């Protein structure tokens, strides 16, 4: 019986979080540009040129295609939602929740494009 209740609760949770209470608007405005977000929150782990920072274990992000970057960023941003291949570790490193709270949220496509156009060395 207890198990049944738990299952029902979980189902309700999934349904609720799936729909959300607020209607989602298509237009999201971000407080900072990808460049600002990168320089203030990503740079110390991924380097001023996206070359990576060994001490922080931040990998180089200067060789990936826009699509690859988008996929990685998607994983990172959605790491907590259970559908991603990102590990808890990645999610912790990137701490999206904290970034978002500080207003450092970003658009995945814009960030991928920024990183690619600014740092890519394979072009
Ligand atoms: C605390 C250090 C840290 C910060 C800050 C950080 N990263 Fe990372 N990032 C990592 C580490 C470590 C990995 C490797 C984890 C993994 O992918 O397994 C990673 C992986 C990535 C990848 C995937 C790279 C690949 O291998 O394809 C991208 C893209 C990325 N970060 C972008 C960003 C962006 C954009 C920001 C800023 C919003 C950011 N990171 C902030 C440490 C950091």
Number of domains: 1
List how many beta strands DSSP finds.
Answer: 0
Mean of the pLDDT scores? 81
CATH class: Mainly Alpha
Strand content: under 5%
Decide which structural class fits the backbone: mainly alpha
Q: Cα-atom Rg, whole angstroms?
A: 17 Å
Count of discrete alpha- or pi-helical segments spanning 4 or more residues? 6
Indicate the CATH architecture: Orthogonal Bundle
* Shape assignment: globular
N-to-C series of helices and strands:
HHHHHH
**Name of the CATH superfamily:** Cytochrome c-like domain
Distance between the termini: 61 Å
Low-confidence stretches: none
Strand count, sense and barrel status of the largest sheet are:
none
């Amino acid at each position: 019986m207890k198990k049944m209740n738990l299952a029902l609760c979980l189902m309700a949770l999934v349904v609720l979080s799936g729909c959300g209470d607020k209607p989602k608007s298509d237009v999201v405005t971000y407080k900072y540009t990808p460049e600002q977000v990168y320089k203030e929150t990503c740079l110390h782990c991924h380097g001023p040129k996206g070359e990576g920072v060994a001490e922080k274990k931040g990998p180089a992000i200067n060789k990936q295609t826009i699509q690859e970057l988008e996929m990685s960023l998607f994983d990172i941003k959605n790491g907590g939602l259970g559908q991603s291949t990102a590990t808890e570790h990645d999610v912790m490193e990137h701490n999206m929740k904290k970034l978002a709270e500080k207003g450092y949220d970003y658009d995945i496509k814009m960030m991928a494009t920024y990183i690619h156009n600014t740092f890519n060395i394979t072009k």
